Amino acid sequence: AGKENEDVVVPTSGGRYDVHLKKRQRVAVYWEEEVSEVRRCTWFYKGDKDNKYIPYSEAFSEELEEAYMVAVTLDEWKKKLESPSREVIILHNPKLMVHYQPVAASDDWGSTPTEQGRPRTVKRGVENIAAEIPNGEPLQIDHLVFVVHGIGPACDIRFRSIVQCVNDFRAVSLGMLQAHFRKAQEQQQIGRVEFLPVNWHSALHSTGVDVDLERITLPSINRLRHFINDTILDVFFYNSSTYCQTIVDTVASEMNRLYELFLQRNPLFSGGVSIAGHSLGSLILFDLLTNQKADPEEDEHSEEGSRTASSSRGTEEVKDILQKLELSEYCDVFEKEKMDRQALFLCTEENLKEMGIPLGPRMKILHYISSKAETQVCFLHGFSSRLPWVWRMLPRVSANYPQLNYKPTIFFAFGSPIGMFLTVRGVKRIDPNYSLPTCKGFFNIFHPFDPVAYRIEPMIVPDLEFEPMLLPHHKGRKRMHLELKEGLTRMSVDLKNNLLGSLRVAWQSFTRAPLPAVEAGSADAEAEAEAEAGVEQQQQPDTKPEEPPPAVKEEAAPINVGMLNGGNRIDYVLQEKPIESFNEYLFALQGHLCYWESEDTVLLVLKEIYQTQGITLDQPLPGSH
């Protein structure tokens, strides 16, 4: 009796839901969601406007089954069965069963429901139903990815939640695995990647701030004001020290909670963990990651190495400064005091006096320091254990950043404003040697029309102009309209260059001074020589032929973009769809919300994750590194 009363729990949907068989309920495991009803499906119906078969309740299914078995046993058909809602089901024969809905309910005049209207089709069992019953997801999980949303409760153009959007992202990833990792799947080298949503918006807005905002919000244009309060104000909340602490605490604690729960439910899991953030969510993750502490041993070695490298480099910079100020004779003094550039900019007049620097040189050095301080280029330096001195001096939101219980393998940013926020905070350059303390991979992925997205690489290499990496199309080629556009651009540039060269030769021959008849022979020779020179000039003219736009240029030599992504490229741009290229402004919002269903984005995420395990695509995509 005890076993009969026991509730059997069956994990479904890749372990993200538990079905309680006795209660007939499906409960979400990792996030809050309304409990949904579960039915044992035996009998189904489908109307004209329905696109799928819908199961009857279990109680009514039992009545239908009993009537059906009687009809089969006695071979007596055309039986009528009335449902609890006074709907009529007629069993004509095993292959034809229909369900009539009442046109109207009984009223005061005593009229009864009629059997008019188009009947529903009734089916028994799933054999004859053309329904796609999913086979389920691979049991083996190779990698775990936490996904943090941006502003507001809705994450896409259809106003869906982060849970629904991540469901789409996961579904696309399963399709991409079948299409591009088929060999590895057949050899059972891989299973799948699990994506779990991290929600911080509800925690922030449950603090009572909405009530305070409602009190001060004007009554006009109510829907617009409510939308702004619920979405755009999240950016201002994050820049408030009070609410920033709430947000980072929620994100970190939620990711730690999900990680521990995932390990409890998947004790054999041995894969890595990565994190992904969309819009403001990517900035929250970036701030969290820059404030993580490495292991004490690694920290000690890396800090010592960083200090040594920084110190030797800084000493050389001080020598250059002193030479510039014509104070080279004091290099030994600064070297003896182990003064690097950072220490030099912290010097006061008293410090220089203690070092024995005379008044004149002191004034020169102090003037140099003050002039540079006004236009100081702020660097994000590469100490792994703590934030660098310059970073701490910047105007930032003060918060106590929690530590994560794991080291992320890769950080993916979708439509990210990280570059803009760093610039606003006063960071003009990121040190090429800087990397996130506990995460060695960083990819900044954006749509070309995304109004919220900003690049990262120009902050590391500010003196060099270069384009972001173009994400290859998941079907293995560049989109047709982009190839056509580049081809036409190349053709127009070539035509322009050839035309300019021909005009130059014609102009030179036209403006040549006339020579005497006696020197006709030599003139001809000179003309030939000048014509040849003109052709050479056409090949290498004084004024450079117009260069094709950056998108058309062939990929140049590898660009060193620092260690933020382990020496690999950071910025990746999606290819816009043909319809999007007609009007950039019209598709700007869609560009910011397109990542959840973007096969190209998902494929890059999978490719980079599995590359860390030594597993590659079946066929390398053109343009991918």
From TrEMBL:
Residues 404-611 form the DDHD domain. Residues 295-315, 518-559 are annotated as: Disordered. Coiled coil: none annotated. The gene is Ddhd2. Belongs to the PA-PLA1 family. PROSITE patterns: DDHD (PS51043). This is DDHD2 Phospholipase. Pfam families: DDHD, SAM_1, WWE_3. One of its GO terms (molecular function) is phospholipase activity. Residues 543-556 have a biased composition (Basic and acidic residues). GO terms for cellular component: COPII-coated ER to Golgi transport vesicle.
